[in-house]
UniProtKB/TrEMBL annotation:
Organism ancestry: Bacteria, Bacillati, Bacillota, Bacilli, Lactobacillales
Keywords, comma-separated and alphabetical: Aminoacyl-tRNA synthetase, ATP-binding, Cytoplasm, Ligase, Nucleotide-binding, Protein biosynthesis
CDD domains membership: HisRS-like_core, HisRS_anticodon
Protein name: Histidine--tRNA ligase
Reaction equations catalysed: tRNA(His) + L-histidine + ATP = L-histidyl-tRNA(His) + AMP + diphosphate + H(+)
Similarity comment: family membership: Belongs to the class-II aminoacyl-tRNA synthetase family.
EC main group: ligase
Biological process per Gene Ontology, one example term: histidyl-tRNA aminoacylation
Underlying gene: hisS
Gene Ontology CC annotation, any one: cytoplasm
HAMAP family: His_tRNA_synth
């Protein structure tokens, strides 16, 4: 009997995990520059937290949730996205309190779970890197946060990306648009997909997000939400556009974009990749927007918010598609060659001592012959190779070779134990 990983999941093996680490480290440094701090929330939440926030009629909640009842009969779900759990944590931990900075800026890098049909860039367990800002209604917050996402891709060397924005308006604008949309769709009720028929009165904006072919003609001819913005929403959107221009960030406006989650208002955005290698398909690699009412919805005080989530699997596909090499650390400072079983203990002590001085070190554990050990040292690109045989053990010395120059000398073991940092500097600088 042999086992396989669940469908739609991946083992991220050494050799690939360092790509992930590079991406993660790049994000941590950049997000620090923007003064975002990391948050980590549980992998599962009460079902209600997600269904209330993301919306019952969305695909995520109605079709894609991993939900279950635990032994205490609690209705739980593996989180499908990051914003709702963080909004829950924001309210529960009273992060709106006076002791916290305003706006409150936080980021996460965590696995998410959606029951979807697996394909390239679509997994059942996938990873999102996301950021949230709580407490600012300033359009500069929208723009700064979008700019951070763009800067992240740029820093990784990704070129073929496109920022697409839209406004969903505030509650008042949305109500006016909702009616206009129903008026537009109702005469075609019979031609709509089954799903859109259900959504038409419950949540007509969802129809615009439909991937069903039958709905496309009516999505294309739908009235534009941008014609229904009230003065305040119009002003907000205009300012966002103007600020993007001031920062010379290219963008396009797509008035049919609604996003797959219900909590958004005003600015929404997606970053798309048309990298060669995605097979000509344009793929969303990052998405987000403003959600000024979610915190209240979850029982907190009135708190405007803005955030995004980006898929890391899709990011890695994009990096590959654009032929971006990720630097992989592939050298070690010292390889210790131990010859003969008698040297086993001393070799262990030597690598430990070298590491205690802050250097990387490795040794043989398989009792291999000298030649095989030197081969390992070469393979690991060791800068120095320290060789200890039984004769050296007697005299408490070792041979050390600087691999780049081929220079060799004899070293007192005492020096390795007491001042290896100086020994290393001297050898490597010569
Ligand atoms: P799509 O329309 O492709 O299903 P979505 O609208 O469901 O995307 P969001 O909920 O906005 O996506 O999630 C933000 C980002 O997370 C997406 O842009 C994508 O990069 C990534 N993502 C979403 N679902 C998956 C998945 N199943 N596997 C891998 N990445 C995903
Ligand atoms: Mg989806």
């Amino acid at each position: 009997m042999s086992y396989q990983r669940p469908k739609g999941t991946a083992d991220i093996l050494p050799g690939v995990s360092n790509k992930w680490q590079f991406v993660e480290e790049t994000a941590r440094l950049l997000f620090h520059d923007y003064q975002f701090d990391e948050i980590r929330t549980p992998i599962f939440e009460h079902h209600e937290v997600i269904s209330r926030s993301v919306g019952d009629t969305t695909d995520i909640v109605s079709k894609e949730m991993y939900e279950f009842y635990d032994k205490g009969n609690r209705h739980l779900t593996l989180r499908p996205e990051g914003t709702a759990p963080i909004a829950r944590a924001f309210v529960e931990n009273k992060l709106f309190g006076p002791e916290f900075s305003k706006p409150y800026k936080t980021y996460y890098m965590e696995p998410m779970f959606r029951y979807e049909r697996p394909q390239a860039g679509r997994m059942r367990q996938f990873h999102q890197l996301g950021a949230e800002v709580f407490g600012s209604k300033n359009p500069a917050t929208d723009v700064e946060t979008m700019a951070m996402a763009m800067a992240f891709y740029e820093q990784l060397g990704i070129k073929h990306i496109k920022l697409v924005i839209n406004s969903l308006g505030d509650k008042e604008s949305r109500a006016a648009y909702r009616q206009a949309l129903i008026d537009h769709l109702e005469p075609h009720f019979d031609e709509l997909s089954r799903e859109s028929q259900i959504r038409l009165h419950k949540n007509p904006l969802r129809v615009l997000d439909s991937k069903e072919k039958a709905d496309q003609p009516f999505v294309e001819t739908a009235p534009s939400i941008l014609d229904y913005l009230n003065e305040e929403s119009q002003q907000h959107f205009d300012t966002v556009c103007q600020m993007l221009e001031e920062l010379t960030i290219d963008y396009t406006i797509d008035h049919t974009m609604v996003r797959g989650l219900d909590y958004y208002n005003d600015t929404i955005f997606e970053i798309m990749s048309n990298a060669p290698g995605f097979g000509g398909a344009i793929t969303t690699i990052c998405a987000g927007g403003r959600y000024d009412h979610l915190i209240e919805e979850l029982g907190g005080p009135e708190t405007p918010a803005f955030g995004f989530g980006m898929g890391l699997e899709r990011l890695l596909i994009t990096l590959e598609a654009e032929n971006i090499e990720i630097p992989v650390p592939n050298t070690i400072d010292v390889y210790v060659v131990g010859l003969g079983e008698e040297t086993n203990v001393e070799t262990l002590k030597l690598v430990q001592s070298i590491r205690s001085f802050g250097f990387s070190a490795d040794r043989d554990f398989m009792n291999r012959k000298a030649k095989a050990q030197f081969k390992s040292a070469n393979k690991e690109n060791a800068r120095l190779v320290l060789t200890l045989g039984t004769a050296e053990l007697e005299t408490k010395t070792a041979n050390i070779k600087v691999m780049q120059t081929g220079k060799e000398e004899t070293l007192h073991l005492e020096d390795v134990y007491e001042k290896f940092d100086q020994v290393y500097d001297k050898l490597v600088s010569e």
